[in-house]
Amino acid sequence: MRWKLLRRRLSISAPRVIVRRHLPWPLRWAVAAVVLGFCGAIGLWAFEFGKDIAGLDRQSKAELAQLRVDTADLRKQRDKAQSLADTADSLLKAERAAQEKLTQQVRQLEADNQALKADLGFFERLLPSDGAEGVSIRSVQVSLVAPGQLRYQLLAMQSGKNLVDFKGRFELALIGTLDGKAWAMPAAGGPHPLAVTRYARTEGLIEFAPGAVVKTVQVRIIDGGGTVRSTHTAKL
């Protein structure tokens, strides 16, 4: 058996032997990497070339550019809407503040109007009712504020062509009943100074015994020489 094998190898019928050069394995890996890289580059080029032929890349770039433009427009619209909203909010706050201020002014004007009406009714008596000249008492108003306390308002005026400032005083006296008997008393504090050019208005409080019943208040205007110039009696 061995002899047959040895003879076959040495004879013409022996199998052919191919002699190959042995390459180191790093070189083999390098060659394989180069081949794979070349194949990948060809594949990528073919892919990009196919997209370019199909127009996919150009379309996506145009869409991306359009999307960027639309995004910028939307941002501008958003900023404009936000600015309008802020302006509207500021105007609304300013309008509310102005409305509150106007409301307060209306209330103040109403109060002033009431006061002016009261003053008008009081000063309507300024015009003299006759041709008498000199200082006179045009009106006296009295009202009970509380037991033992009375409020008075006095309006005095001076009429005539050549008016000279009048400087004098006025006195008040309370007349009524106390414990069922007649009662009278001058106002506490004595006479009060009074100066009149055309007219003078004065008011004050008078205190008296809480048990007294005041029926009338008498007012007298006295000049600097002690002469009574005008007298007026007001009923309560």
Architecture overview:
The chain folds into two domains: 26-126; 131-235, Immunoglobulin-like, CATH 2.60.40. With 236 residues, it is an alpha+beta fold. It contains three helices and eight strands, in the order αααββββββββ. The mean pLDDT is 79. The strands form two sheets. Strands 3, 4, 5, 7 and 8 form a five-stranded antiparallel beta sheet that branches. The chain has a three-stranded antiparallel beta sheet with strand order 1-2-6, with no helix packed on it.
Helix content: 40-55%
Runs in which pLDDT lies below 50 for 5 or more consecutive residues are: none
The main pleated sheet reads as: 5 strands, antiparallel
Highest-level CATH class of the largest domain: Mainly Beta
- End-to-end separation: 167 Å
* Second rung of CATH, namely the architecture of the largest domain: Sandwich
The structure class reads alpha+beta
Strand content: 25-35%
Number of helices: 3
Roughly what is the average pLDDT, rounded to an integer? Answer: 79
CATH topology of the largest domain: Immunoglobulin-like
Number of strands: 8
Q: What is the 3D shape? A: rod-shaped
